[in-house]
Amino acid sequence: MSDVENLHAMVIFARVVETLSYTEAAKQLGISKSAVSKEIAALEIRLGAKLLLRTTRKIAVTEVGMTWYHYCARILSEVKSAELFIRRFHEEPTGSLRVVAPVTFGCQCIVPVLNQFVAGNLHVSVDLDLTDRPVNLVDDNLDLAIVIRRDRPEHPHCLPLMDISWGLYAAPAYLERFSAIQRPEDLTRHDFILFRGPAHTISLPFRKEKQKRDIEVRSRFRANNSTALVNSAVAQTGIAYLPDYVALQAVEEGKLCRVLPEWEMDLYKSWILTKENGLIAPRVRLFIAALQKALR
Question: Which of 160, 184, 209, 264 is 20 to 30 Å from 120 by CA-CA measure?
Fold first, then answer.
């Protein structure tokens, strides 16, 4: 029994069941009525079962034939989905690209890629939601979401984007006012600038080779906005604990420098969440590729 032969017969048999007419099935498929009749007869021989009961006036589907039809319908539906996927793959990206991302990460890392993407795809518009609240792709009618987690999200369709490492940053003039910081334990006498949380103290993790430290520090300045934290550190209020990408520009401009750079600290990952793997629109697929290339 040939699988390819049966697949062709499935198409013909399914069309006969749906129309209950050899003549109409042949017309829709663009073949002769006799070809339909021969194909059905050959299929029944290969399967060793009667699928259709045909009289001069009507066609009836047997119980075995109806069960076989349901298998055929599912297979043919998958074939159509595969064809649709390929067709969309080659289509020019169009429509509105609906994206949600965390506020700071979105502003600094996602928006520059979106700007380039829009410039290169004239028929695509962008609807960007920058928020730190939880989102639902379906309920919020989104194409994709960018999230930041320590571990892989519990989502069926997610792709890794980039690692987000954290570090300590301070203004050079601030550090000059104190003795050199040579080890994590030296940090306890300093003031800290931290993202706002439920407590004023935080245990900072440090790793270097096989060494591990957890140093408890107290914040003097807390905020829920990274720009405010960077500005406070530049103003010499204390040492800021920040994602490295947030401090990058200030470091390049000489306004901040990394404290204890030989020690590793927290590491998060950013992820791309999408609704479906199989039928992703061209605009979404191309933007994901652009993101991965830019932020790899």
Answer: 160
What pTM was computed for the model? 0.66
Helix (H) or strand (E) holding 174: helix 172-176
Quote the number of domains for the chain: 3
Sign of CA dihedral 251, 254, 257, 262: positive
In tens, the pLDDT along 48-99 reads 999 999 887 788 999 999 999 999 999 888 888 887 777 766 667 888 999 9
Evaluate whether 8 touches 31 at the Cβ level (below 8 Å): no
Task: From 143, 28, 15, 7, select the one nearest 78 (Cα to Cα).
Answer: 7
Compute the CA torsion angle 204, 208, 211, 217 (nearest 10 deg): -20
Q: Which domain holds residue 171?
A: 165-268
Q: What share of the chain is helix, strand, coil (3-state, %, to 5)?
A: 45, 25, 30
